[in-house]
Amino acid sequence: MTEAQSVAPQASPGSSPMVQFRNVSKSYASGQPAVHDLNLEIDRGAITVFVGPSGCGKTTSLRMINRMVEPTEGTVLVDGQDVSAQPAAALRRSMGYVLQSSGLLPHRSVLDNIATVPRLNGVPRRQARIRAEELLAVVGLSPALGKRYPAQLSGGQQQRVGVARALAADPPILLMDEPFSAVDPVVRAELQQELLRLQQELAKTIVFVTHDIDEATVIGDKVAVFATGGRLAQYAPPEELLRAPVDDFVAGFVGRDRGFRSLSFASARDLPLQPAVTATAGTLESAPAEGWLLITDDGGAPLGWLPPGQRTSTAAVTGGSLFTVGSSLRQALDAALSSPSGQGVAVDATGRVAGLVDAGEVLQRLDAERRG
Ligand SMILES: Nc1ncnc2c1ncn2[C@@H]1O[C@H](COP(=O)(O)OP(=O)(O)OP(=O)(O)O)[C@@H](O)[C@H]1O
């Protein structure tokens, strides 16, 4: 998804909640409650993620926002108004909805699919198609795909069209139910990053359902962890969930390496860098023979490491991850741990070597922060 030139931001975080659940429960005729006494406030202009194991009431909760499901008890408010007092069809059309299966109409072209809701809202055909073309660009798809049918697109492209369709009426709220879970992990990570980029421009209120805690912590400004029986176990920003899960259920769900993952939220600003000894293919002969030597191209971008005593470029060892100066401690530690030399390569925003970082520095930084 690229620039969203024509879509104006609609809301800013920090004001009154966009959605409120007040003592909301839902029981179906069969058996135990799907949602039990839910109290939750969803921030305006932010991404809120509902996460939890299968059957814990995430989708039911999401659908109570647009009245696809009616609560058995309690009240859902959108923008301060009780949704039960609003006509269901109009309420539904006023919110974008993205599904796992993309839900595109198979016999309509991509452009016609995107234009569906504006057309239902009475926007003239031509105008709706122009808007649909703009939205194709917003979600990073080439204009040529507009004439195709959904079956002629990859899974990732279909999901992008699903997002474009949900954005077509420029709704302040987007409901997304496992939108990226049917695509492979690489495309999924790409779609997550693009949703984040898009959200920076659009500032929609997004409610996103997933059963994947990694996805939740990557994209959520706040994460609601649901437990079996439709109980809200914890509602917090992702860094807090990882650092301080409230009980064993949340700790177990968040996963074993949560300490390491929480480093993603720890800034590496001002992390000290060691000077790097570097050489290019052209200056190898005059480089010192002792120690690991970092090879760069003529522009200063890292190419690989030469072990001590080896000074022919064919002996270069590659594969360590890079740490972009100013990013997270997780990136810094990973660069150090994955580096053949034991020292992580730090690069500046243009990809040139800025220095080296070692794992000890990262751990010292954490220790210093803990001591306050
Ligand atoms: N229409 C329905 N009729 C009866 N029971 C239902 C209905 N929809 C959901 N349920 C039940 O309500 C509970 C919560 O379902 P829900 O789909 O909200 O869970 P979920 O957390 O979204 O699960 P998943 O991750 O598997 O989609 C489940 O026990 C489910 O079987």
From TrEMBL:
Q: Which Pfam families match?
A: ABC_tran
Single Gene Ontology MF annotation: ABC-type quaternary ammonium compound transporting activity
> Could you tell me which InterPro entries the record lists for this protein?
AAA+_ATPase, ABC_transporter-like_ATP-bd, ABC_transporter-like_CS, P-loop_NTPase
| Keyword ATP-binding listed | yes
Q: Where are the transmembrane segments?
A: none
Q: Which SUPFAM superfamilies match?
A: P-loop containing nucleoside triphosphate hydrolases
Record keywords, A-Z: ATP-binding, Nucleotide-binding, Transport
Q: Where is the ABC transporter domain?
A: 19-254
Enzyme Commission number, as recorded = 7.6.2.9
Report whether ATP-binding shows up as a keyword of the record. yes
Family of the protein in this entry? Belongs to the ABC transporter superfamily.
Q: What is this protein called?
A: ABC-type quaternary amine transporter
Organism of derivation: Crystallibacter crystallopoietes
